[in-house]
Amino acid sequence: MAQLLEGAIEENVLTLLVWHDVHAISIAAKIEPLIFSTHHYQKIAEAAIKFIQQYKEPPKDHINDLLERDLSDTEPSKFMHRTIVAMKALAPKLNTAYVMDLLDKFVRVRTRMLGLADAYAALRQGDEDAADDLMFKRPNLRRAETAGIWLHDTNLDFLRQHDEDFFSTGIPALDAAGIRPERGTMMLLIAPKKFGKSWCCVGVGKANVMFGRKVLHITLENSSALTKRRYIQAFFAMTKRDGMQVSLRGFEREKGGKFVGLSDVTTSVSRKGVTLENATHIQHHLRLLQYRSHLLIKEFPTGTLTTSHLNMYLDQIAREENFIPDLLILDYPDLMKLDRAQLRVDTGRQFTDLRGICVERNMAGFFPTQGNRQSDNAHEVRSTHVAEDWSKVGTADVVLTGNRTPQERERNLARILVDAARDEVDQFFVVLSQAFDIGQFCIDSERMDPRVRRELGRISGLQEGDTQAMTREEKQETEYGAT
Questions:
Q1: What is the pLDDT of residues 260-269, one digit of tens each?
Q2: What secondary structure letter does DSSP report for 195?
Q3: What is the mean pLDDT of each run of 10 residues along the chain (483 residues)?
Q4: Quick check: 34 and 42 in contact, CB under 8 A?
């Protein structure tokens, strides 16, 4: 690290920028003049980058012409002239591979040093919030862009489904329809308060650990201890306390798995509790989980997390824990640090930045968000019920909504609507059976059709006219005589 703070490295980088036929263009695409430590280096870098952007080649001896006004007879100008002469002599002798290997790290270190200097200045002015943001700001490292993907290229690797690219919602009926988290995308769940959004996050986390994914679960509402307890309940079907009776409602299916109906009766079971008396039992099963994959739970105080801080934390766990998440669960983004004076604008920007992080780091994102007041009493929650900024919906790749009437809640049932999907069929419901007492957001699930809807109305005690309008898909099934 010390070598990156010494002058030699930046002199070498600057030399390649001015003189190297191959690497000058890629360096110019990655750096800003301000990362150099002296005014003279910055002037040389600025002139070289402008020349490269215009002529697509390094300036070499033209650098003297570009800096003609600065190369006067004054002592500072003589120093700049001597620097250029020294770089020209150094250029043929440089180990270019070594310098290019250090380039990205050099830019990160120098950018962080500038951020620290700006943070110190902000602290001296009494602006602690600005200082925090500057300290946690992700290094402004520009990536050299590729040309893109040619249509006529016969490489079709994207058609192959790699094992490491499979994710799950924890709801089989959604997975079967292709509605799953994917790398570089954002899945949004809109639901009213007390729907069970945090339990849904736990269900998604559990399902993907079982598939061998590395999961990072960030909680801004519940404590890390409570979140871990809920995961233990979900993985091992345990209750909060010993002796609790749990009611389970099943789906009736034929031998081949075809849905027949919702059971009219519930099964009552008693499970072990997540208590100190059962600590040995819990520890034994937790040790077995480590051979599947890893799940990291991190709590941030409500209203303190920014996307800059999140980026810094992701860098930290990659470096210190060798942990690079496949899936990021954030419960929930509305509780991040926001500018209350511009709440809607800042909320929309926050979600856009979160999706950008998922794309940049090639991980899937699952983010619940609060519905508005109307969603609390809505029989059918839609994207229009999203709280604050509507752009959340436009940013997300998949939008789910959580639906549950008081009658459905009493019977441990819920509905999920796929309201929008960028690359799959949307506008359909699935019905779930649940058991939060043993940590199960979804025990069983079925895609909604007219028969399932009638069964749901029957078991929930709702009349035909009380159920919501059919989705587009159900109307088509009815028109074509589907049963």
A1: 888 777 777 7
A2: S
A3: 56 90 84 84 89 89 84 71 86 85 80 79 81 62 61 78 79 93 93 91 94 93 93 92 82 85 77 90 87 87 88 87 93 85 78 90 93 79 78 89 88 91 90 91 91 83 50 46 37
A4: yes
Name the 3-class secondary structure at 314: helix
Q: Is 122 left (phi over 0), alpha (psi -120 to 50) or beta?
A: alpha
What is d(CA 403, CA 425) in angstroms, rounded to the nearest whole number?
Answer: 19
Largest Cα–Cα distance of the chain, in whole Å? 96
User: CB–CB of 446/454 below 8 Å?
Assistant: no
Contacts of 58 (CB under 8 A, 6+ apart): 17, 18, 19, 20, 21, 24, 25, 48, 51, 52
Nearest 5°: CA angle at 240, between 234 and 241?
A: 140
Cβ contacts of residue 314 below 8 Å, gap of 6+?
216, 325, 357, 361
326 in Cβ contact with 208 (< 8 Å): yes
Global pTM? 0.72
Any alpha helices (H) in 254-412, and if so which ranges?
Answer: 279-289, 307-320, 343-361, 373-377, 391-395, 406-410
Structural domains of the chain sorted by starting position, each given as residue range(s) with its CATH number in brackets: 2-135 (1.10.860), 163-479 (3.40.50.300)
For tokens 């960030």, the residue is 218
Nearest CA among 408, 400, 350, 352 for reference residue 379: 408
Contact residues for 8 (Cβ-Cβ < 8 A; gap 6+) = none
Q: Compute the distance between CA of residue 35 and CA of residue 141 in angstroms, rounded to an integer.
A: 10
Strands (E), 271-311: 295-299
The torsion angles phi and psi of 176, rounded to 5 degrees, stand at: -65, -25
Q: Which residue, chain included where needed, has tokens 């040093």? A: 113
Sign of the Cα torsion 211, 322, 336, 111 reads: negative
CA distance 389 to 304: 20
- What residue type is 150 in one-letter code? W
- Percent helix, strand, coil in the chain, to 5, is 50, 15, 35
Looking only at the bridges linking them, the beta strands covering 398-403 and 186-191 are: parallel
Phi, psi of 39 (to 5 degrees): -60, -35
Strand extents, DSSP E, 383-450: 398-403, 413-421, 428-435, 440-447
